[in-house]
Input
Amino acid sequence: MTSNDFEEIIANAESEILDFKSEQYDFLNKANEANTAKFVKDIICFCNTIRTQSAYIILGIKESRTGEKELIGIDKHVDDAIFQEKIKNKTSPIPHFNYSTINYKNKIFGIIEIPIYKYEEPISPTIRMKGLEPGKIYLRRNSSNSEATGRETIQIYKWLESLPALHSSSNINDEIAEVISKITAKILPLSEQVAESLRIAKKNGLKKLEQFCIGELSGWHNTDEIDVEKALSYRIQSVVMTFNKIEINPYSFQTLTSQQMLDEILKIDKNASKHPLFFQHSITQIEEYIDGFPIDKDNSIIILSSAADELFDNPKLAGVINRSYVSKHNLKVIYQGIRQNLISNLLDIK
Output
């Protein structure tokens, strides 16, 4: 979700399709099951609400009675997988939703999107929880969660029946096959195929593929819940690093390849050495870097600057700038890794 999309959503008042929460759902306190029950009820109510567009729960915003909004932000990170786990085995059918975060005006906000989905029947609790009775139907009425009346329940059934049929597995397979064909043929920039894969993932509730595509399109900046060395190893490259700024003479009579330039830096700078670097950059940034290199020559490198204390997790290096010297080969290896992982994620879909 872009900042503009986010602004358009939060400009609205709470309603049948929008709810604001001042805080993150507190799942860490296992003794407080009321928080889980509240979350489950919120999801059930939005799923059962008759509407023509996705519904949203925005975490980190407080709306006053006059409609004024206070942008508080959230300070607790909860992965989408935890949200999915908290509702697992508590409802029937299983609800479809996704959780993500956005950095807006230097604050983090949580976004729960509940898309329209053709369920076989309205969603109801399967276990007794605070405010929830098994088998009963709940919905969003105005800006509040309520138990559905008999008439409302009938209307929900009719609404679900009126929704277009879900795409069959054969249709999904056809779409996936077409995307894979374009990826392997390299017809378009890979970023466009990732975007197309994200569309397929959201349309069909493919969470694993969706998370991969979002990470590649937005950049892997929040990896607290991810084993980077295992899950994102294809984005790690060995590069030459140094705290010193090395000037490369563009008027030299000797033309050096990128590898020769890197070897020369290691020779002349005693502080320079090779280190593994995790590239957080979005796929579009990587494409821009690659396009910036000469097409038929290998005599260029790019310099990526970053805060040394954050890169090496060492507060003693606060204020020090680290420079990473990156070759076109480094970026092309990453780009190919993204390509292969996208294909693997698509082939894993059954």
